[in-house]
Amino acid sequence: xxxxxxxxxxxxxxxxxxxxxxxxxxxxxxxxxxxxxxxxxxxxxxxxxxxxxxxxxxxxxxxxxxxxxxxxxxxxxxxxxxxxxxxxxxxxxxxxxxxxxxxxxxxxxxxxxxxxxxxxxxxxxxxxxxxxxxxxxxxxxxxxxxxxxxxxxxxxxxxxxxxxxxxxxxxxxxxxxxxxxxxxxxxxxxxxxxxxxxxxxxxxxxxxxxxxxxxxxxxxxxxxxxxxxxxxxxxxxxxxxxxxxxxxxxxxxxxxxxxxxxxxxxxxxxxxxxxxxxxxxxxxxxxxxxxxxxxxxxxxxxxxxxxxxxxxxxx
Length: 315
Known about the structure:
The chain is mainly β.
């Protein structure tokens, strides 16, 4: 298993266990749903996209359902592909020897050109945030011009953004308590959705809407979940699609109109287009396997992508 898979699983286990709450019961995908046998059956907005799948980059228009490119070995748990399929941004952390024992080295946010294979360091923790503990959850702005990511210190968390053209790095000084690695997503208007501490004096976290300066606007959810899934904006910026208790929902940016759109989910939607979302769902637990599905944002369609084989973790 690749390092980034191991680190992501460990991160998620820590995230869940640190909340003092048991795991939510896993929801298995229904079996009596239509199966898409080729990319020609996909909505065009999905067929043109790429995702991270089983240790590599999968083009959904590949009828073989196989990954085209293996992810870099140094990928450390967090990654996002740009909407134009040209780049992947990810967190990298080197392993160095310290007296014969492995030790984590510098934390970096990296940009990987999927067409040329060239990799570029966007920000180094040692150079730009030497007192920070870690980076997490880098994501592109919709125009592809900036990358937003989490910076965590011993007793504080914040979001920062990198201008890809100039290389300028700026803290947003978010005025809400970010939790669960934040997992920010940015709308076309610059608003940000992030996981934050809920309004009650318990361990629950919710989704928060921030303005384009990183300042709190409102809570979008009231799930009471200590380990909620992250949310993604629809392209028009009017809705957020998110996972809660292994099911997929959408909610308006004004915090109303919550609607279930998929009977299952797995921490987060993989991507969201104007009318559909791609979602990973468990299909079994013994062995522990998951597969790809699509759901329409109106909640009327739910289908399995049959030409992409499920991934099983404990076979």
